[in-house]
């Protein structure tokens, strides 16, 4: 394999790791936040609306981390500056070989 193939392979692997690891952290955080909010609502039922509002703001902030990871993965796959050069080189090799 040449260096361009390694760049393409590394981009795909890093994109997969980014979305994989980037989804695990927010999932754990959201689970903990909802668990804590439910415990707080069970202990203080009068404050349910305030706890729910704060919970949704917190969940949005946690979810934004996963969305950032998705955007980085999409940039690595679809907007990688090396891809055009990689595709051009692959086309030249395919055209020259056959």
TrEMBL record:
Family matches, as Pfam families: ATP-synt_C (PF00137)
Listed transmembrane segments: 6-34, 55-79
Coiled coil, from the record: none
Superkingdom field: Bacteria
Site (Reversibly protonated during proton transport): 63
Limits of the V-ATPase proteolipid subunit C-like domain: 14-76
Compartment(s): Cell membrane; Membrane
Any one GO CC term of the record: plasma membrane
Keywords, in A-Z order: ATP synthesis, Cell membrane, CF(0), Hydrogen ion transport, Ion transport, Lipid-binding, Membrane, Transmembrane, Transmembrane helix, Transport
Molecular function GO labels: lipid binding; proton-transporting ATP synthase activity, rotational mechanism
Bilayer topology term: Multi-pass membrane protein
Family from the record: Belongs to the ATPase C chain family.
Record function comment: F(1)F(0) ATP synthase produces ATP from ADP in the presence of a proton or sodium gradient. F-type ATPases consist of two structural domains, F(1) containing the extramembraneous catalytic core and F(0) containing the membrane proton channel, linked together by a central stalk and a peripheral stalk. During catalysis, ATP synthesis in the catalytic domain of F(1) is coupled via a rotary mechanism of the central stalk subunits to proton translocation.
Name of the featured protein: ATP synthase subunit c
Source organism: Desulfocurvibacter africanus PCS
Gene field: atpE
């Amino acid at each position: 394999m040449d260096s361009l193939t390694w760049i393409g392979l590394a981009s795909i692997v890093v994109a997969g790791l980014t979305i994989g690891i980037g989804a695990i952290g927010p999932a754990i955080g959201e689970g903990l936040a909802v668990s804590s909010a439910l415990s707080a609502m069970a202990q203080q039922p009068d404050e349910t609306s305030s706890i729910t509002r704060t919970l949704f703001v917190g969940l949005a902030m946690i979810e934004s981390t996963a969305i950032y990871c998705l955007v980085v993965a999409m940039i690595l796959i679809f907007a990688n500056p090396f891809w055009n050069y990689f595709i051009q080189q692959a086309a030249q090799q395919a055209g020259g070989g056959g």
